[in-house]
Amino acid sequence: MESLRYICWAFCLAQFAFVSGHPEFGTPFKVPQTSAVIQGAMDVSRLSASIDDTLNVMMSGFIPNSESKRLLVVNFADEFSRKLKAVAEELLTAASSNSNVNDTLNAVLDKYAELVTFYNSNGNAFVSDVSSKVGLYVSSEIWTALEFIESALPDVKVTTNMLREALLSVSAVGDVPAGLLRPLVNALRNTKAHLPLLVYVFQRVGVNFQTADTFIATFKQDEQPLPDKFQRDTATFNGRLSTLEAAVETSFSTVEQLFSATGTRLSNELKGDVEDQNNFVKLKSDLLSFTSTRSLFVKDLKQSIQLASSGNRQSIVNGVSQVYYSDSSQKVGSPALQLAQQLLESSANAEFCHSKYAALVTDLLPLGRIRLNECFDTERPRLQKLEELLETYALMVSYDVEDMWNNLKPCTAECTKSDCLSKITSFYNKLKTARNTAKLTRASNFFLSALTASLNRVGLCFTRVNFLTFLNLVPTYIEDAKQCVGEN
């Protein structure tokens, strides 16, 4: 009686399992290890979806052909990722399918066939294009990763087909072998184990594309305002020349007015008894000639110095905008472009070499401004000395007329000797001779040559900076970056 009760209990339990089990793989009952298949399919789906994660970026266009290279990689990665994910997703659908076994698992095999068809039609051409358009090393990496997947994926098809055939012959839950899903689980785990290499390769390429484009875009962004910064620094330096011109205006105009005022006073106040002295008219004319000639000289010298200084300012502006920190054969951004292009190629040492030289290359931009200010800072104190010299010269010239009226006063007094004016005037005639036109021209030439020398020194400094940059640093960085990729 007890044995009969046990048999009935076991039968009812079996019926309960058959009826209450949710449908899996197109069967009306639960299949052992389904959860392991679900986990494996989810892992493959997750990894597949991440293949092109870093490749969907917008390129700035500063690197030639960068967008076409990115599209080459991303189009294949996206399609391969989508089709591989579709196989895994179809397996997940199959795990809870209430359809029939054939329809359920054939749908998985159909998705697998789509993946294989895409890969067979595009795989070799894709790797070849990557080799010629992106880089040989990364094409080798992609090929190795794809071969890994290629060796693992057929097991998914085989084990899925085996599962389909096995389930078609099962009519009751008791007929399901305990290890029926184990081969499929192992195939999924094997695929999952092989996927990270492919994910890594594509994500590394994507990250390198992003890094290279961000690097060159940032470089260009910093380079764009550089001419304006140069001009602002130039304006600051030219302010020093403007200060010199203002100082010349003040000091020389004072002297010029002093001569003119003295001449006016001679005309208006040199009268009375003094007019009775010998040769008064001629002597007065000589004195007036002295003051007017010297006044005109000071005025001309002032204007020539200001004109030369103004010319220097314009020449420096032109030099900075047209010559400074530029070279006809290569640009200051050439090393940055070289680094970015090498990073796109994603060779074995691309990331290391980029990290090694990126900061040095970026420093080329602020270095230009630093060296420009070194040129200006070197010349600035020399201009200060020249300004002081000009002011001193103006003061010395003023001495020629400063005491003239005091010297003439004794000659205007009563009972003055008849030759007083003659003797005083003779000294100013000698002074006029000492300041003859040729000698005055030499003084003018001295100051003008000082300004010319100042301009030449600044121009020479610009040339030196250009040589150091474009004949030394720029080609050195380019060559070092190339050697780094090839040797390390």
Please give a quick description of this structure.
By secondary structure, the chain is mainly α. It has helices spanning 2-20, 34-49, 66-94, 101-133, 136-168, 182-223, 226-269, 280-322, 334-345, 350-362, 364-402, 404-412, 420-434, 437-487.
Report on the architecture of this protein:
By secondary structure, the chain is mainly alpha-helical. The protein folds into two domains: 197 residues, no CATH class; 263 residues. It is 82% helix and 0% strand. It has 14 helices and no strands. Helix 3 packs antiparallel against helix 4, helix 5 runs antiparallel to helix 6 and helix 9 packs antiparallel against helix 10. The longest helix is centred in the last third of the chain and has 51 residues. It is rod-shaped. The two termini are 85 Å apart. The N terminus is likely disordered.
Binned, the helix content reads over 70%
The radius of gyration is: 47 Å
Overall shape: it is rod-shaped
What is the residue-averaged pLDDT? 88
Q: Which structural class matches the secondary elements?
A: mainly alpha
Strand content: under 5%
Query: Would you report the number of β strands?
Result: 0
Distance between the termini: 85 Å
- SS field, number of helical segments: 14
Which blocks of ≥5 consecutive residues have pLDDT under 50? 1-22
Largest sheet: none
Protein name: Protein TsetseEP domain-containing protein
Please give a handful of descriptors for the protein shown.
488 residues; Protein TsetseEP domain-containing protein; 14 helices; disordered N terminus; mainly alpha
List the helices and strands and how they pair.
Blueprint: H1 2-20, H2 34-49, H3 66-94, H4 101-133, H5 136-168, H6 182-223, H7 226-269, H8 280-322, H9 334-345, H10 350-362, H11 364-402, H12 404-412, H13 420-434, H14 437-487
Protein name: Protein TsetseEP domain-containing protein
